[in-house]
Amino acid sequence: MDEWIGSGGTAPLTSYTEAVDWINGLIPFGIRPGLERIERLMEKLGQPHRRLKFIHVAGTNGKGSTCAFLTSVLIRSGYSVGTFTSPYITKFTNRFQYNGVDIPENVLTELANKLHPLVEEMAQTELGSPTMFEVATALAILYYAEVCYPDVVVWETGLGGRLDVTNIVTPIVSVITNVGHDHTDVLGDTLEAIAGEKAGIIKPGVPAVTCVSQPEAIAVLKAKAAASKSKLYLAGEDFSYGSAVVSGGLQTFTFKGPFRSLELGIAMKGEHQLSNSAAAMMALEVLRQYMAFILEDEDVLEGFRSTFWAGRLEEVSTSPRIVLDGAHNPEGAESLAKSLPQFYKYDKLNLLMGMLANKHHESYFKHILPIVDTLILTEPDFRKKMDAEDLQAIAERLREKYAKENLVIKVEHDWGQALQLLQSITAEQDLAVVSGTLYLISDVRSTLLRQPNSEKGW
């Protein structure tokens, strides 16, 4: 530990809480696209990321679920796996997992103390202080490269790809789940612009897998792959997946790849999980075919079957029935609207939602309003929350064109009170859904599952 001690002679962060508070204290530095600060940090640490094998996952929706599928199958197949994801649902340590288990609090504190003096030093330079996400990314790299040494790291981008901090790595395979309208304030407001940012994770000679479906986005990815001399495995051309048969809690479908076909069963609900699992399967096939990964059919099938990801069409209460789903953009809302009638029977659908202020809420409502009987609008406990009255104004403007005839819209600013209202109006034959930003999902989930120590964040 001596070499990890700051300039003051003692480790400045004496507890897990202090370490997390310090990292979260960097949030005001915001999202600052670019790799200069993480490159400088890695240089000072001896380039630890170069000792690791990464599967890099980008996309507008489905990144977390795809990472979960990859992690589950690889662990089942006997590999040790690091998984770096965001945001977290329950606790800050969720971001940094090894074989499905969170980083120990004392290890996180030690690694934060190793980074602390470097961050303080950089804050005094022309580069400015590293951001919260840059420090979290550096901490993940240190954990995997110097503490637990996984065979492979499943590595989720934070925002976009090209200028995202996670893009400091050169992976063994890249995955781009899909492209949709999200974070347009940073990534651009056209599908081509957003696809261009996601395509930034395609590295020279490294194979890439995608389920992107829009022709203009596909063209961007194909051009980037060709320029990088990388093989692009495209859904619909290089591999395919059929529609699912839903039975016994499983969605079963056929995956057809260039090397073999398999009948996959997944317990994750929703049509969108077919493409997420198919992308994961194609990436695994690349590892099996070209990188000598041993992936037996039995382990692959069981790995997919047993995959779970919190807050994605997750039923957390039976009386009343409450389902959580972190759909927070138009594409997520479309998937949610399609999936609910497929998996649940109900008389009335009551939906509680809260949003951040930087999302395409109008397009979100166009998918949600036609299926909802009572809409409760609230505000997440987060600094960038969207005012519930502003959400109400958008919903009312769209009511005549999109909503059910007798739609009831209620506003309750306090999310806890809003949740109680949702519970009180949902009868036995009805279904309650909580949707929107994961900051709201996180709080509601910890309340309903009685997890008093829950944290939350990006």
UniProtKB/TrEMBL annotation:
<dbReference type="Pfam" id="PF08245">
    <property type="entry name" value="Mur_ligase_M"/>
</dbReference>
<dbReference type="InterPro" id="IPR001645">
    <property type="entry name" value="Folylpolyglutamate_synth"/>
</dbReference>
<dbReference type="InterPro" id="IPR036565">
    <property type="entry name" value="Mur-like_cat_sf"/>
</dbReference>
<dbReference type="Pfam" id="PF02875">
    <property type="entry name" value="Mur_ligase_C"/>
</dbReference>
<keyword id="KW-0436">Ligase</keyword>
<keyword id="KW-0547">Nucleotide-binding</keyword>
<dbReference type="InterPro" id="IPR004101">
    <property type="entry name" value="Mur_ligase_C"/>
</dbReference>
<protein>
    <recommendedName>
        <fullName>tetrahydrofolate synthase</fullName>
        <ecNumber>6.3.2.17</ecNumber>
    </recommendedName>
</protein>
<comment type="similarity">
    <text>Belongs to the folylpolyglutamate synthase family.</text>
</comment>
<feature type="domain" description="Mur ligase central">
    <location>
        <begin position="57"/>
        <end position="283"/>
    </location>
</feature>
<feature type="domain" description="Mur ligase C-terminal">
    <location>
        <begin position="311"/>
        <end position="437"/>
    </location>
</feature>
<keyword id="KW-0460">Magnesium</keyword>
<dbReference type="GO" id="GO:0046872">
    <property type="term" value="F:metal ion binding"/>
</dbReference>
<dbReference type="InterPro" id="IPR013221">
    <property type="entry name" value="Mur_ligase_cen"/>
</dbReference>
<keyword id="KW-0479">Metal-binding</keyword>
<dbReference type="GO" id="GO:0004326">
    <property type="term" value="F:tetrahydrofolylpolyglutamate synthase activity"/>
</dbReference>
<dbReference type="GO" id="GO:0005524">
    <property type="term" value="F:ATP binding"/>
</dbReference>
<dbReference type="GO" id="GO:0008841">
    <property type="term" value="F:dihydrofolate synthase activity"/>
</dbReference>
<dbReference type="GO" id="GO:0005737">
    <property type="term" value="C:cytoplasm"/>
</dbReference>
<dbReference type="InterPro" id="IPR018109">
    <property type="entry name" value="Folylpolyglutamate_synth_CS"/>
</dbReference>
<dbReference type="InterPro" id="IPR036615">
    <property type="entry name" value="Mur_ligase_C_dom_sf"/>
</dbReference>
<keyword id="KW-0067">ATP-binding</keyword>
